[in-house]
Amino acid sequence: MQRSSTSERGPLWRDPAVRALVIQAILLLALLGFVAMIVTNTLSNLEARGITTGFGFLQERAGFSIPQTLIEYSGDSSYARTFVVGLLNTLLVSAMGIVAATVIGFAVGIARLSNNWLMAKLAAVYVEIFRNIPLLVQILFWYFAVLRALPSPNQSLSLFEAIFLNVRGLVVPAPEPLPGFSATLWALLLAVVAVVALTIYARRLQTRTGKALPVFRLGALILIGLPLLVFMLTGQPLAWEMPEMAGFNFQGGVTVIPELVALWLALSIYTASFIAEIVRSGIQSVPKGQTEAAKAISLPGDVTLRKVVIPQAMRVIVPQLTSQYLNLTKNSSLATAIGYPDLVAVFAGTALNQTGQAIEIVAITMAVYLVISLVVSALMNLYNARTLLKER
After folding, report:
1. Which residue, 105, 131, 338, 367, is the most exposed by fewest CB within 10 angstroms?
2. Where are the domains of the chain?
3. 155 C-beta neighbours (distance < 10 Å), count
4. What is the C-alpha separation between 257 and 268, in angstroms, rounded?
5. What DSSP string runs through 137-201?
6. 3: left (phi over 0), alpha (psi -120 to 50) or beta
7. Residue 1: pLDDT above 50?
8. HSE (CB half, 13 Å, CA atoms) of 205?
9. C-alpha dist (Å) from residue 2 to 5, 10, 21, 272
10. What's the pLDDT score for residue 184?
11. pLDDT band at 166 (very low <50, low <70, confident <90, very high)
């Protein structure tokens, strides 16, 4: 005779799964109650002190200037516009830093494993110096000891009387697109599509026949040659606004402020020292038999590195590389030390001091950095999934 399932299991309160579910529900309710209590007390204290809450301040006039803006901005712009300007400046220096740090880091990491004794030692010295000096100290060094020691605008270092370098930054001619420039942009877009199509075709051809096409050389030729050809055929699609000395400073052209240069150099060089070690460890994780097999079939050293070693090392490199990209993005907030107008300086700094909306501004700033980090992580995880070894 079969017993009932209820009698076999016993009372529900003795079931471990049920107990775990009840305990988790209680903890969740306690956490929600704790958060609600904090929010209620905070709102009550703010109301008692006459401090307004909400995001209405974003539409108010900011009333201060920003030295670097990638979009139109003036003192009459709103705090919402200030937020966008600071966010774009943060994204600019982060993107520039990621690109430069990746290039420098890969070069130094490969150099550390070079058979050339001098090159390997110089790469080791670079890593040991820059990764052991605090980033803030490096930012201050590049800004005060290097860039602030440049001559005044009247005594600027010049190149072809068109590019000027002085204590206030790098001044270069500003491009002004003419109607014919749109054809060059369309040519560039077509070149990008052609390079993607060439890459897909070359990969399928190599899988089917084993024949490898020089994708890098052909792609570079298409990507540079096609827009350049259209640029030359359209006559003069660009005009250049040349910088000219007027009074005590230059007028016209584009000025790259020294704060951006100092922050970019410090972030790139500092992060590259860690990326170099990641690249070195990733390359050393590839079994030596892979290199020996490549030599056995007479593959050149550079081809072995690009086609055999690096693709296998990327599965070790990419996860650690993601952490360095996230660190670089968050470390850009140290720009406040030298006055670079990033999100923290202009929004969580000047805007917060003027409005007093600390909770709202800090919450927005934290949310922005969280979103940026999640996006970078998602993109790197997507790339990491493509570099993993596929088991058959």
Report:
1. 367
2. 10-48, 79-148+259-387
3. 10
4. 17
5. HHHHIIIIIIGGGSPPGGG-EEETTTEEEETTEEEEPEEEE-TTHHHHHHHHHHHHHHHHHHHHH
6. beta
7. no
8. 11
9. 9, 16, 29, 69
10. 80
11. confident
Q: Residue range 367-383: average pLDDT?
A: 90
pLDDT at 87 over 90: yes
User: Could you give the count of Cα atoms lying within 13 Å of 181 in the half-sphere of its Cβ?
Assistant: 9
Per-residue HEC secondary structure of 192-233 comes to HHHHHHHHHHHHHHHHHHCCCCCHHHHHHHHHHHHHHHHHHH
Which residues lie closer than 8 Å to 143 by C-beta, 6 or more apart? 258, 259, 262, 263, 338
User: What is the predicted pLDDT for the residue at 275?
Assistant: 94
- In the predicted model, what is the mean pLDDT of residues 305-327? 85
More confident residue, 168 or 300: 168
Tell me yes or no: is domain 79-148+259-387 CATH 3.40.50.300: no
Q: Is 78 helix (H, G, I), strand (E, B) or coil?
A: strand
Closest by Cα among 316, 367, 347 to 86: 347
The DSSP element (H or E) to which 249 belongs, if any, is strand 249-251
Residue 317, C-beta contacts closer than 8 angstroms, at least 6 positions apart: 278, 279, 282
**DSSP readout, 260-306?**
HHHHHHHHHHHHHHHHHHHHHHHHHTS-HHHHHHHHHTT--HHHIII
Q: How far apart are CA 121 and CA 318, in angstroms?
A: 25
Mean pLDDT of 198-216: 83
Higher pLDDT among residues 263 and 150, named by residue:
263
Contact criterion met (CB below 8 Å) for 171 and 164: yes
How far is it, in rounded angstroms, from Cα 351 to Cα 62?
7
Q: What dihedral do alpha carbons 368, 374, 375, 379 form, nearest 10°?
A: 160
Q: Are 94 and 105 in contact (CB under 8 A)?
A: no
Instruction: Say what the pTM is.
Output: 0.81
CA proximity to 355, closest of 43, 61, 69: 61
Place of tokens 């400046």: 89
For helices 258-284 and 117-130, give the axis angle rounded to 10 degrees: 120
Joined tokens for residue 134? 């605090």
